[in-house]
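Our consortium's second objective concerns turning raw sequence data into structural hypotheses that experimental partners can test. To show how far this objective has progressed, the report includes one record in full. It was chosen at random from the queue rather than selected for favorable results. The single chain below, 113 residues long, was entered without modification.
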Amino acid sequence: MAASDKATGVEEHGTEPSATEQAVQVTVNYLPAAKAFHQAYLGTTALVTVRTDAMAFFGVRDRQERDKYEYFLEFERSRITNLSQTLDQLLGPHRRGAEFNLIEQITPGALAR
C-alpha cells in the first residue's frame, strides 16, 4: 500500500485506483463485538474480501467442531450469497458507503450415541 493510500485508508488488494475511482466506506457490525469494523475499499473489491477482512477483525472463522459455525454477510436484511460480486455491483456505481452485518450461523452436528 502506498503512503498516499495509507492516508486515505483505501485497501488496494493488488489493484491501483484510477483517477476517477472513489473509495467505498464499509462498516461491518457483529452483534457480540463492542466495536464495528470500518474500512475503505475500491468499488472493484469482491465481497469475499470484505467478509474475510471483517472475520479477521472480529477474530472469527468458519469451523466444524461438533457443530458447524459459518459466517455470512448481510446487507439490507438479505444474506449475500454471491461473494464474488464487487461492491460496485452490489451497491451501484454512485453509492460510496455500505453497512453490513456479519451473521453467525450454527448448524447442530449429529449427536453421539
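The partners drew two points from this record. The two ends are 53 Å apart (CA to CA). The chain has a mean pLDDT of 85. Both points have been shared with the crystallography group to help prioritize constructs.
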